[in-house]
Amino acid sequence: MATDYHKTHRVEEVKDLTPSAYIVRFQKNGMQFQAGQNLNLGLKGDTEKRDYSIYSPEQNEFLEVLIKEITTGLVSKKLRRLQEGDELEVDGPFGFFTISGESRKKNKFLFIASGSGIAPFHSLALSYPEMDYQLIHGIRNSDEAYERKHYANGKYISCVTADKSGDFHGRVTDYLKQNPPDKDTLCYLCGNVNMIYDAFDILKEQGLPSSNLFAEVYF
Predict the structure, then answer these.
(1) Are residues 128 and 45 in the same domain?
(2) How many structural domains are present in the chain?
(3) If you average pLDDT over residues 62-78, what whole number do you get?
(4) Which pairing describes strands 168-169 and 62-68: parallel, antiparallel, or unpaired?
(5) CB-side exposure of 11: number of CA atoms within 13 Å?
(6) What angle do CA 195, 167, 173 make, to 5 degrees?
(7) Cβ neighbours for 219, distance < 8 A, ≥ 6 positions apart
(8) Domain with 214 in it: what CATH number?
(9) Which H, E and C letters describe the chain, residue by residue?
């Protein structure tokens, strides 16, 4: 069972994935969470904090978040400058974008992400490798296929819009139109709000009930 914390966590590493995306790894300090939940974090003593989905799996001895640096963002720029040993203030875990043990055993899942919205699915896929899932990831360039090697063969599909270097050329919504899921699939969506609205409409037109659709929105 997840427990709420308001603690100081020491940074272990900041790892760049692309010129604009990076991972912050920090001490777990005994925190228990469910894959799919998020944390509210910022620099120690700073009033500016943001919510980030937990990127690391439940069983790891550390916590990670995946962050996309925003040109006009305050927190994402500050967090990128962190060094090993710096301290973060962390609240959480929060959220219900999770999957029960019973559901993991009996259901088929489609994870639909755009950009850094892949974070909770990375945690879910690595926490529960026994799940029957497919992950489709909408990105502009193939270098944004963050750590795709972490997913089992055939489980990850990149939908790339800027070039033809991905598994599919086009948006995730284009992929869905051409590859409708089975109507009993549970669909989890995370990312840009416009992508989520469009994907919801497509999935419902394909016959999936609203009760099978779950979303975590990034505005």
Answers:
(1) no
(2) 2
(3) 94
(4) unpaired
(5) 21
(6) 20
(7) 192, 193
(8) 3.40.50.80
(9) CCCCEEEEEEEEEEEECCCCEEEEEEECCCCCCCCCCEEEEEECCCCCCEEEEECCCCCCCEEEEEEECCCCCCHHHHHHCCCCCCEEEEEEEECCCCCCHHHHHHCEEEEEEEHHHHHHHHHHHHHCCCCEEEEEEEECCHHHCCCHHHCCCCCEEEEECCCCCCCEECCHHHHHHHCCCCCCCEEEEEEEHHHHHHHHHHHHHCCCCHHHEEEEEEC
Measured between alpha carbons, how far is 169 from 145 in angstroms, rounded to an integer? 13
Query: Does the pLDDT at position 174 exceed 80?
Result: yes
pTM reported for the whole predicted model: 0.95
- For residues 85 and 125, state if they share a domain: no
Give the domain extent around 129. Answer: 101-218
Residue with tokens 């100081």: 8
Residues whose CB is less than 8 angstroms from the CB of residue 217 and which lie 6 or more positions away in sequence, other chains included = 190, 191, 193, 196
At residue 1, the pLDDT reads 47
Looking at this protein, which amino acid is placed at residue 158?
S
